Amino acid sequence: MKKVELLSPAGTLEKLKIAFDYGADAVYGGVSHFSLRIRSGKEFSWEDFEEGIAYAHARGKKVYATINGFPFNSQLNLLKKHILKMAELKPDAFIVATPGVLKLAHELAPDMPLHLSTQANVMNVLDAKVYADIGATRIITAREISLKDLKEIKKELPELELEVFVHGSMCFAYSGRCLISTLQSGRVPNRGSCANDCRFPYEMYAANPETGTLFKLEEEEGVGTYIMNSKDLNLASHMQEILDSGVVDSVKIEGRTKTAYYAAVTAKAYRMAIDDYYAGKVESDKYQYELQSLQNRGYTDAYLISRPFEKHDTQSLDFTMQLGTHQVTGVTNEAGTHYMCKFTTRPGDELEVVAPLDSKIALVDNETGTTYEKEGRLYLQFKELRDEKGKVWEAVHSGNINPIKLPTTFPPFTFFRIPARDDMNTAPKN
After folding, report:
1. Hey, where are the domains in the chain?
2. Is the pLDDT of residue 45 over 50?
3. Which CATH class is domain 326-424?
4. Each residue of 3-19: b (16+ CB within 10 Å) or e?
5. pTM
């Protein structure tokens, strides 16, 4: 049986490694030129991206290169050079967004699989066939599409791979084709520099141009002013419906600009959901426990399962972002031997361990600390916070870059967290 692919975001080389360690089958990312995450893409140098591809291939994993910006005429020669240079690195596919770039990439790199970005907004058989005819091997379908329409596309084009988003930020505009950021700040969303203007609170005014009268419309209490702020997508509890359809080849997580912890937790949660599906079980509470620990704008299952006109809970009207159920306090170094502080940590704090699935972590009790199990989860408590130079700290805080010795070796990029308190949540609310 061919299993569905789990595709995670990789905004940096570190996030690429973390996504793979926590369960991703493939990642997507790019070098800044012509990527829709220019600010994130700058964190990948050509050398880092090449190293990431080698890292993936050594583990039987895949890397898809994003060349999904919308180029201007003045950039076409640079685009050609970029495509040729990227092809030399031998990623497993290009992700492109426009018919012209798709055709150009097919001409310049004829052996390269080409994935059509969700920005192309494919929602029907006719459009899918056009893109397949000019070289697309996979369609990353519009986020507004339904499973019913996916089935129709697969029925007509059985060799065409279909990829769907299952988690991450949503855009209030069709497939991200928005110009508000361009209008307000000159940052062009489809050139990779969206300022997320839809996440801002807005005040409403009424004006009479004949008299010059201007007055503010009073907000109904509890309605909120984040009028374009979409909730985040979360389909972890719907993996059975998605995979039962038999037409989805890859499930995709959004978030190249998000944290390393986000890369880890989303990959882990969806890995569990997918593996459970093939094992014939569903444990939604387990997936949601992880996903609720992330900062989010509230979650929605959006439109893949339900049609847009059936949904009335896809907007977060009274806040732009909320803290998740947990606060990350630290992460191990890549060797897994030392703790790098991200939030105030003291001896005796009960830190929940977040590690890749099937990790083997020793239960120890020594002068440095203890590791123990409680209610099916693994925890760490420090007895002392000793850095590499031997200094013992009463507490370490965010910004303290001294590696703190761990009582045992953990897998690379193991995270530690504590339950979040209300006073940690700084997200603006009305």
Report:
1. 5-174+229-310, 326-424
2. yes
3. mainly beta
4. ebbbbbbbbbbbbbbbb
5. 0.88
